[in-house]
Hints:
The protein is mainly α. Helices cover 82% and strands 0% of the residues. The chain has helices spanning 5-8, 10-15, 17-22, 24-29, 31-36, 38-55. The radius of gyration is 15 Å and the shape is elongated.
Amino acid sequence: MITPKNPSIPIPDSRFPIPNSQFPIPDSQFPIPNSRFPVTFFNQSYVYISTKNSIL
């Protein structure tokens, strides 16, 4: 479809939107802990992203 050089860039781009859509879900699941420990939740988000990227 597109030149082989382009796909290599869109691929990582498409990976981020996926985890992004998953963050709103856990955010709504833990609204209380988010307000109590925003730092902890923030750290978990980073770990989640790192884990996702490692798996992919």
